[in-house]
User: Which sequence fits this backbone?
């Protein structure tokens, strides 16, 4: 079989869906390569910073690793801005959605919320509420997100920082995104 027999999903056969499932498994297996490619795209992103978005992402991950973070948080720091190219207004949520099936809920929540938490450092300059994160003060992962932003994200714009290259992180990207997906709420 090279193509399914249906033009409406409701008309698909067992053979059609088994065929598609096999192709989907192959596609999913190549996810780490697409994640790495998505990070490379950030090298040609938003101008104006002293480092590229890729360099910022690499520096965030390097800082996380050097700070003793586990591999889920290191990969979270690496991909936290991967949504910038396609979802600049909600990049945090896009990155969290990519991570969600492969990392624990804490990492997903932190990446999802980092955009709001980052306003602490610049919101007052743009008429945004720098204390918007205070609405989440009682959340069990508030301190994790505060640390993520303070130590790894907002600090990762230094062109002189000794940052690890993307190839250094490739093994853990492959490890995380080759896991069996698990979906939680």
Assistant:
């Amino acid at each position: 079989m090279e193509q399914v027999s249906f033009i409406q999903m409701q008309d698909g056969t067992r053979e059609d869906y088994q065929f598609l499932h096999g192709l989907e498994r192959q596609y999913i297996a190549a996810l780490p390569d697409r994640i790495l490619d998505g990070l490379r795209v950030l090298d040609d992103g938003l101008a104006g910073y002293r480092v590229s978005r890729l360099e910022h992402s690499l520096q965030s991950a390097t800082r996380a690793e050097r700070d003793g973070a586990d591999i889920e948080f290191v990969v979270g720091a690496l991909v936290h801005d991967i949504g910038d190219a396609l979802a600049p207004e909600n990049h945090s949520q896009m990155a969290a959605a990519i991570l969600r099936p492969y990392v624990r809920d804490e990492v997903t929540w932190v990446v999802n919320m980092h955009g709001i938490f980052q306003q602490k450092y610049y919101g007052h300059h743009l008429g945004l509420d720098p204390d918007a994160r205070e609405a989440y003060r009682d959340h069990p992962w508030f301190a994790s997100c505060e640390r993520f932003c303070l130590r790894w994200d907002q600090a990762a714009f230094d062109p002189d920082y000794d940052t690890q290259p993307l190839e250094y992180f490739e093994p853990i990207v492959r490890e995380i995104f080759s896991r069996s997906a698990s979906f939680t709420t």
Remarks:
- Residues 96 and 108 are 5 Å apart (CA to CA).
- Residues 14-177 form a domain with the Hypothetical protein af1432 fold (CATH 1.10.3210.10).
- Residues 105-126 form the longest helix (22 residues).
- The chain is about 55% helix and 0% strand.
